Amino acid sequence: MPSKIIVLFFLISSFCSAQNANLANMYFERGDYILAKSLYEQLYKKNDVRRDYFKRLLSCYQALENYDKATSLLIKHQKKFRDQTNLWVEIGYNFQLQGKTEEAVINYEKALKYIENDPYQGNVMGRAFEENHLTDYALRSYKRAMELNPNLNLDLNVAYLYGEKADIENMFDSYLNLVEKNEKYYATVQRYAGRFITDDSEDPSNVLFRKLVLKRLQKNPNNSWNKLLSWLFTQQKDYNKALVQEKALFKRNSENLFRIEELGDIAFYDNDNTTAQEAFSYVLENTKDQNSILNAQYYLLNVAIKTAVTKKEIQTVEEQFQELFTEYGRTFTTLDLQMAYADFLTFTKDEPEKAIVILKDALKETTSDYQHGNFKLKLGDVLVYTNRFNEALINYSQVQTDLKNSTLAQTARFKVAQTSYFKGDFKWALSQLKVLKKSTSQLIANDALELHLLISENIIGDTLHTSLKMYAKADVLAYQNKTQAAIDTLNAVLIKFKGGAIEDETIYKQAELYTKIKKYNLAEGNYLQLIELDKTGILVDNSYFKLAELYQNNLNNSDKAKEMYQKIIFEFPNSIYLVEARKQFRKLRGDIIN
């Protein structure tokens, strides 16, 4: 019986201590130092081994400017725990708070002397200095410890402190020291350095990081330097430069082509077709692996489809597909190729019925729910192309139900909304888009927001939704690659609803379609008209950027292009086109862009 009472007493005591500790921490974090002090005094008295109780009690005394109490606590604690060498830092800091700088420095130097005899004390002292915001002393501790014992790796601590001081060059250098000692820290450096890297190649931090890595690469070829340069160039969307680094890595190791395939994939989806083509051509030249060969062929065909214009080019793509199907068959191993072929048949050759047959056959070969869902989505897209909206909605909805909470389900929801908009069912489309505006996928969220704005702004005051229905009809025609018919429909919208809310979207959409069919002067006219219509409209910076691209790439007028890019740089600092506008402006000006 007595033993049970002792156990019960111990449990109650522990519970009370834990409660007091939580309460003391709450008061301390809130800045109620008087209340926190009284609780920490009790906690420290019961358990003076706990460093957090000691440190917080000391901080309470100091915050309340009760330096006599703080000094007494330090003396008492140091007598009992003589091995805690970091207490010299606390004693020094207590003097500093009282304005006794000389005494503070004497104690800081005492602390630093311990490192000379035992470099491992560098970490202890460094942390103590850090806790008291003595950054320069903390740096001295960490750096001296590594000088005395090169096997110590405190570069991450050093880098963090340089970051606190906004000394970006020394911070980057310290991160790179970390990699130089051990390549396994590559991912760590990428993560931390990435907080200071932007997608602007001329950002000072980007320029500095590139120079520091190149300097090390020239001194000592190391896989990590190539990887870091490739990563940097990828962040900047300089995929061709990233590919140069990846090729250098492959030539040095020749282990696998995964990194080059991954880069090619990124370049392809960011519409850098040249780099994607070069990357996957390199893969084909350097692999015998069937999966890699098929993957490379898939991307190369998709690049060819994107760039095919003449009937001869389109026929060449058709022949390439047939050659691959002859060699590899139409089985689960060529499912990606089959999907690409269905897309090609529909949107390039205008043969959707053949595509539907291929997709339905391919559905039987799928080996996972995700793969099945992808083919369902593509089938829905082809059905929309043929105006079979209800059948398309069934396919999209099935994906949404079968793969709940996945990115694919969110894509399906967006396609449901888009198809409903095409049909003229605007209320249902809005209900779906409202959910998608918070999508975890930024691309889906942006598309959803754009369509939500289009619909919501153009159904107000128009109970029959006549203007939006006509615009949606043009959108369907554009989706079906019936570009001239779409342009003509948009002309009808502009004539019938001149001055209406739909006017700016119509002019902008029509300009995009003019560009697609290479009527660049008409596209230019539309963009200029849109800017004149409303200089503060949400499509104005888009129009300046599109004009700049037209002048640069199609109308051979670099002076006008520079003028348009400058408009974005100086008048639209929050534009999503700002970084690219700067890059292209510098390129046209003749700057050397590394």
Automatic annotation (TrEMBL):
<protein>
    <submittedName>
        <fullName>Tetratricopeptide repeat protein</fullName>
    </submittedName>
</protein>
<dbReference type="InterPro" id="IPR011990">
    <property type="entry name" value="TPR-like_helical_dom_sf"/>
</dbReference>
<feature type="repeat" description="TPR">
    <location>
        <begin position="119"/>
        <end position="152"/>
    </location>
</feature>
<keyword id="KW-0802">TPR repeat</keyword>
<dbReference type="Pfam" id="PF13174">
    <property type="entry name" value="TPR_6"/>
</dbReference>
<feature type="repeat" description="TPR">
    <location>
        <begin position="85"/>
        <end position="118"/>
    </location>
</feature>
<feature type="signal peptide">
    <location>
        <begin position="1"/>
        <end position="20"/>
    </location>
</feature>
<keyword id="KW-0732">Signal</keyword>
<dbReference type="InterPro" id="IPR019734">
    <property type="entry name" value="TPR_rpt"/>
</dbReference>
<dbReference type="Pfam" id="PF13181">
    <property type="entry name" value="TPR_8"/>
</dbReference>
